[in-house]
Amino acid sequence: MDPTRRLPPELVQHARAFLAGDQTAVKPKGASTVVLLRDSVDGAEVYLLRRHRDMAFAAGMYAFPGGTVDPRDSDRAVAWAGPTPAEWASRLSCDEAEARSLVCAAVRETFEESGVLLAGPTSDSLVSDTTGDDWERQRAALVDRRLSFADFLAGRGLVLRTDLLHVWAHWITPEFEPRRYDTRFFLAVVPAGQRTRDVSGEADHVAWMRPVDVVAGVERGSMTMLPPTYVTVAEIGRHAS
Q1: Is residue 49 within 8 Å of residue 202, measured between CB atoms?
Q2: φ/ψ of residue 60, rounded to 5
Q3: Is residue 3 in a domain?
């Protein structure tokens, strides 16, 4: 059976309640997720996190780094390189404020959940190392919302490298789910010199895997993921590079 057609038992219950009129649709929250890619001797690999089994959403499932938009992600003070917010708005089919928020959220959440930072001192350079106690303290402050992304970048004199992001897909959680997200999917290659780190407090396992191995894991039942994640991995796996 196609894994995208199988729903966890709890979601089946929500779907039935919605169809019966016992549950109303909630407004989806804006969110961004980033498919991190790297080359290996066996081909391209994607970075996945397995969410803790006690999480309220997608518990125990594999996912890409990502999360909801922080209201401060739309801060115009963020130093910006690459396509303008207006150009991103066109690519994302939204207004400039929302585009700015979605792009900033994509970079921020990726740093929070993997340690990879798509930013640099100039519009054509990148941070080569994000390890160390100072970086970790600031990453944790971003996670706790004690530090805004704009202040983080400004404090380090960094420019947001939006040119390193590529739009891939747009998914909205079905109306029957109690937690809904209006999510933009982006692709990004891990910058040279940077490495992913197992730093997400929402995950109990992380892995770099070839798309074909991920698809095989889902099909045999050793891995679970929501349909958007599975479809994205399968689509990427059809590309040679």
Answers
A1: yes
A2: 75, 5
A3: no
